[in-house]
Each structure stands twice: as structure tokens, then as C-alpha cells.
Amino acid sequence: MAQYHSAHRKENKxxxxxxxxxxxxxVNWAQKDYGVDAFVQVGNEIDSGGSSKLESIFLPVQLKATxxxxxxxxxxxxxxxxxxxxxxxxxxxxxxxxxYAEQADTFYIKWIDDKFVSGLSIANPxxxxxxxxxxxxxxxxxxxxxxxxxxxxxxxxxxxxKPVIPGTYFSLKDQVKKQITAxxxxxxxxxxxxxxxxxxxxxxxxxxxxxxxxxxxxSKVGKSTLINALLKKGISPxxxxxxxxxxxxxxxxxxxxxxxxxxxxxxxxxxxxxxTIKQYxxxxxxxxxxxxxxxxxxxxxxxxxxxxxxxxxxPGLDDPDDNILQDTWGFVRTFNAVIYIIEVSSxxxxxxxxxxxxxxHIKEIGTSSEKIFLIFNKIDSLQNDRLEELKNRIxxxxxxxxxxxKVSKNLYYVSANESLRRRLSSISSNNGIPDPLNAFEExxxxxxxxxxxxxxxxxxxxxxxxxxxxxxxxDILKARLIDSDKLVSLKAxxxxxxxxxxxxxxxxRTKGHEIKKSLHLSLDxxxxxxxxxxxxxxxxxxxxxxxxxxSEIRKFLSDGLNKIIxxxxxxxxxLLNLLKNDADIWIEGNLKKVRELINTSTDTRYINTAPIxxxxxxxxxxxxPFGMGVLGGVLAAILNPGAFIVGALAGFFGHLIFSAESRxxxxxxxIIDTSRTQSDIVFGDIKKQxxxxxxxxxxxxxxxxxxxxxxxxxxxxxQIREIKVNPLSSEEQAKYKETFVKLSGFxxxxxxxxxxxxxxx
Length: 761
Prior knowledge:
Elements (H helix, E strand, L loop, with lengths): L5 H17 L3 E4 L8 E6 L10 E13 L9 E6 H8 L5 E7 L4 E7 L1 H10 L8 E6 L9 H11 L10 H21 L4 H15 L3 E6 L6 H9 L16 E5 L4 E6 L4 E5 L2 H8 L11 E8 L8 E5 L8 H11 L4 E7 L12 H11 L4 E7 L6 H17 L11 E2 L2 H9 L4 E2 L2 E2 L2 H14 L4 H25 L4 H16 L1 H39 L10 H50 L30 H9 L6 H11 L8 H62 L4 H29 L3
Parallel strand pairs: 3-5, 8-13, 8-14, 9-12, 14-15, 15-16
Antiparallel strand pairs: 1-2, 2-3, 4-7, 5-6, 9-13, 10-11, 10-12, 17-18
């Protein structure tokens, strides 16, 4: 008699129950092992005739079953081969992992998507090296009445982006680099200035593709400990006293090593050890940075970093060493996102205060960073009731100080030291309490992934720019092959546009003047509004009540001025973008006929040309020439402790005498008049600083546009001169034709690479 194994009976039972669960969706079970157990076709509810209308939406499913009871934490755990997870994660559409708990007669589900893979990397950075992984399910994963609708919605809105599994980012970056090198090999022998500039810019941008996240805050708040916990490795020096004295950069690498960059431009490379990092980055072993180190760069094999992100551990923003402090703030203004840490252990004794420096740091960092994550560290000394009191107080302070819109919507309360201890010892929870740092990591990666912040997105942009560069190269080549009838027209067009270049200069001068005028008008308006707000504020106090003290009025004015500069800074950037757009329109309008003439040359009709998108002024990192952002320059010149409005008004408020006998209206008038006089000085300085910045930034944009135009026309002119001076031989003509064919094939390869990259968005 044939035997029917219990494992098969259990498998068939789980399949039958799964079909009932999804009815009226159709479950097509795979007859062979294709990597998943079934493909589900989504359908609508059954109509009155008993039929279900199926949709063109398919869902691959991997079904597992377990007879185990739940753990103390209410979790189920199953072992799955790591290679299978990698395969599912690399699929073009998302795979749904389903677990059937027989005893509870309940289904649990998990999407094998980027969030899932990121969670694996957070829990264990070396997960990809394991043969099997334990995948846990809990009550949050249970299949509910609403789950079918949620699955359908997920499939409809999902971009089906592939997770970047370990090694993928470097592989893709290498492919982009190879394409740039291939283009240089193709174009380099012609020695065109335009294509050389394109290759140099693309190569430079490729090396800057990684998204930069910094961990900052005052000294001794746990920055280095947090970095070590995030990366699950002892990288940044930790000690009793101030430790980090030099910025430490942690970037992805194919091996663990340390590169030390010195201020004199030299560099040395060392094998990775924590002691080596301390030798160059700690204040104990490199006192006052006597070794003149600019940056310690740590390369490490890490799946999270390989998504195209780097972390920086920065010395304290309140370091007493002026040289360290200056270098620190120079670094801070270059980061894409910032994790700002505040130490709250003093709340255990009720002595925690949200200090003025926290507010100042957050506001200043917010002028140059896309995102600020706010972490309150060292909560391990707080009892639950005291922690709740602290959270309520901080929520109040954040609202009172108008900082809510400056930081991430979630505030995080952690013990970086406890998280580091757990992670280094592979402890996921403590008495059933999850690591609070996990929630922060999930939000951080959600921000990076959903906002296309990672290096993958910058690789996509590089490929797009490279494709545009191929058309510039093709244009210049084709100028050499232009027929004699069109040569005269082309020369005339180039001469006409060259004669019109002063119009571009005039455009920049006019727009630069308009930008400064607009900013001055805005500052005048906002200054009036600030003084009006101060007057309303003062009048709100009853006659029998004392007016605010000088320090309170200074604070009112300085807070208002901070807000004004934030607003005007954004106006400044918006106006610069408009200027770049105006320049684009001028360039495109004047070169359109040149491009059309070149592309319709009768000698090159065999070429299938595409519309050329060239000469568009790209986004420029305006902070790079100055080492700081726009507002950073203003703050450095105006809002530093020696020159802020406190300095402008200190003398006045030092001599203010409030007389009980004086009439209230006279007091207020005197305060407003003197405040107006002193604020005129401050706002005058602000206008000068913005005027200088506008001139410099307009010059940067203009120089870039001029250089692009000059290179392009220089190459075109050189090709035209060669037409009569050195006609192409039959071999050279064959070479040109071969280059056009290679360009066409090269673009096809770029399109394939672009498609590969887009799968990870």
C-alpha cells in the first residue's frame, strides 16, 4: 500500500486554506520549482452569476507552514535559505512570503522588498554570508480582513524597485564608470574640449554620488557611540573625556581600510584597526590636531552603506579648540542630512534644560541640510515616569521655540550605549523590550529610500548626462562632414550668435541687479514687519505690568531675524534658479538653428539623429566654492557671537532705563525708534552680504555657461577649418562613419544600463 507522508498532507492543507483565504482570487500552484510556490491572479468579488472578473495583476507567493507554538513574545520563526531571499529580492516584482501557523489556523505575510532587506542589514550587517536566516512573524504580520485590499493597492502603486542587496551598488557604480571610460575612449582621440569637459565633470560627479549623513551635536553626547551602534562595529573613538577631534568619514568599500587625509594635501592608507583611527582622530592621541589631519576616511564592507550612503562622526559643535570648531562647522555645512544628538541623562535629577545652543545649532544646520533627525540620548538612567515627563517637556519646548518644522516629525529617545552593547553581542531585545534605535533606523532608511536620496539615484542622473554628452560629441563630429552649401550658412549663424553673446552678459547683469533689488525690498518689508510685531508685542502688556527686559527684547529680535534670514535665503535660491532657467532659454533659443543645420547635413543622412539636449546649465553646488551654504556665509559674517544683533543692540539696551513714572507709550516709542536705528545697521550689513553673494553666484553660473558655449564653438570652428585645410581622406571618412555606428550602439548600451538602474528606484 502506498504511503502518504504527513509532510505532504500538511502542505496540501496549507494550500487549501490559502486558496480559501484569497477566494475569489485565483491561485496557480507551480508544478516545478521556479523559486516561488504560486502565482496569484487578483480578481474582483464574485458577482451574482457566481463569476469573478480577474485583473491583470499577478502576485508571486512563497508559502511556508509551521506546527510550532508561538514564543513568549508571540512570534513564529522559520529558517529560510539566504540564496532564496536574495533571489526573491532581485525579482522584477515583489514576492509575498506567507507563513501558515497550523495550531492557530492563522496566516502571516511579509513583503520581500527593500524595507525587508534593510531590516536584515540593520539586524545583522553580514546576513548575506549566512547559509540560512531566521525570519520572524508576529501579530502585526497577521492576515486581516483588510489585507487583500492592502495587497492589491500595494501592487498597483508599487514601482517594483529591487532592493540593493550586498555588492549591487558597487557593481552598478563600476558599470557607470566603465561607460564613462568607454565614451572617453570613443571621443578622446578627437580631442574636443567639450567632450573632455563632459568626461571630467561626469567622473567627478560619480565620485560624489554617495549621500552624506552626519552625526553631530555638542561634546560628550554619545555621537561616536551612536555611529558604532548603527554600523555594529567599533569605529569612532569612545572615552571619558572629549574624544573625537577630527571628522571621521565611514564609506562603503570592497575591503576594510583607513585613508588619512592631511591638511597639506597628502594622504596615507592603513589597514583597518580601531587603534589606528584613534591615533589620528582622537583628542587623546592627536592633541589639538597636532598631526594636521583633515579627514579620517574609513572604508568598510557594509550592506547598508552599499546603497550609496556614508556616515560622518563630527567633533562637538561646542569644542573649545577654535581650530577644531572652525573645521567642524565647515564640514557640517556640506552634509545632505544630519542626525543631531542631545544628551538627557540630567533629566533623572530634574536638571535637564533645552539649552539655547541646541536651538541655535538646529536652526543653523537647517539652512544647509535637507533633513535633521533629532535624537535624545542616554535615557537608560531615566525611570518610565521621568522619561514621559521629559518627552512632554521637550514636545512643549519644540513647539514654543518653533523648531517642529526644522526636524523630522518623529523624536527619538535612545540609549546608544545600550544599543551598541546589544548589537555587538547580537542581543535583539532586553527582557522583551525592543532596541529603540531600530525605530530610528527604519525612519532614516525610509527617508533615504522614498526620497531617492541614495547613490543609485545619482548614478541614474550620471547616465542621463552621459547620454546628452554623446549628442554634443556627435554634433561636433558632423560639423566636419557638413556640405559646402550649408557651410556658409553655418558660419553666418555662428558669427551672428557670437555677436549676440554680449546679450547673455547683459542678461546676467540685469538679472543680478534685479535679484539684489528684490532681496533688498524683501528685507526692508520684513524689517518693518519685525518692528511692527515688536510694537504689538510690547503693547500687549498691561500698563500696570513691567515691559519685557532688555534680554527678552533682544531674544525677540534675534529670533525674528533668524526667521527672516531663513526666508530670504530661500528667496535667494529661488531667484538663482530662475536666472539659470533664463540662461537656458537664451542658450537654447540661439543654438537651435545651429543644431538644426548641422543635423540636416546632406553628407550625413545615413545617421539617425535624436533631438539634442545640450547647453542646459546644471544644478551647481554653490556651497563648494566657499565651503558653506548661502545662509552659512551670511551667518558667518553677521550672526556670529561677535557681530549678531546682540552686538548691534547691546549698547542701546545696556543704557535703556525703564522709569516707572514714564508713560508707557513713550517707553514703547523709544524702544521702537532705537530698535529701528540699530536694526538699520544690522539689515544694512545683511544687504551687503547678500549683494556680495549674488555677485559671486551669478559669476559662477555665467562662467559655467560661457565655458560651455566657448568650448562648443571652439570645437565647431576647428572642425570647419579642417574642412578646407585638411579634407577627410577615405580612411578618415570611414573612421567617422564607424564612430557614428559605435555611438548608436553605445547609446543602446546606456539605455540598458539605465533600465537596470531604474529597477532599484
